[in-house]
């Protein structure tokens, strides 16, 4: 077919381990083998935990509202 469709109603959401922030692993649900794609729902004033990826690239897309991002130190 060439594509996979995942509707919002079909996406599996779960709370993160530390912050209990709702998130969904879209990459896994879409059957991606080389692409990681996770969507997070942060509330106003909420923050994600500080973390790092040694060999992974990360992209942030803000769909609504504003935010701050710390890169490196």
Structure description:
The protein is mainly beta. It has 1 helix and 3 strands; from the N terminus they run E-E-H-E. Strands 1-2-3 form a 3-stranded antiparallel β-sheet. A hairpin with a 6-residue loop joins strand 1 (14-15) and strand 2. The radius of gyration is 14 Å and the shape is globular. It starts with 13 loop residues before the first strand and ends in a 33-residue tail after the last strand. The mean pLDDT is 83.
List keywords for this structure.
1 helix; mainly beta
Write the layout of secondary structure elements.
Blueprint: E1 14-15, E2 22-25, H1 26-29, E3 38-40
Antiparallel strand pairs: 1-2, 2-3
Total number of β-strand segments? 3
Structural class per helix/strand content? Answer: mainly beta
The profile of the biggest β sheet is: 3 strands, antiparallel
What percent of residues are in strands?
5-15%
Query: Kindly state the mean pLDDT as a whole number?
Result: 83
Number of helices: 1
Oligomer: single chain
The Cα radius of gyration reads 14 Å
Uncertain segments: none
Secondary-structure element series: EEHE
- What is the CA–CA distance across the termini? 44 Å
Name the shape in a single word.
globular
Strand neighbour order, sheet with most strands: 1-2-3
Helix content: under 10%
Brief synopsis:
By secondary structure, the protein is mainly β. It has 1 helix and 3 strands.
């Amino acid at each position: 077919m060439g594509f996979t469709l995942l509707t919002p109603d079909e996406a599996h959401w779960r709370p993160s381990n530390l912050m209990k922030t709702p998130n969904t692993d879209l990459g896994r649900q879409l059957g991606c083998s080389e692409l990681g794609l996770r969507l997070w729902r942060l509330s106003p004033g909420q923050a994600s935990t500080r973390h790092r990826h040694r060999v992974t690239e990360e992209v942030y897309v803000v769909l609504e509202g504003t935010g701050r991002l710390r890169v490196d130190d």
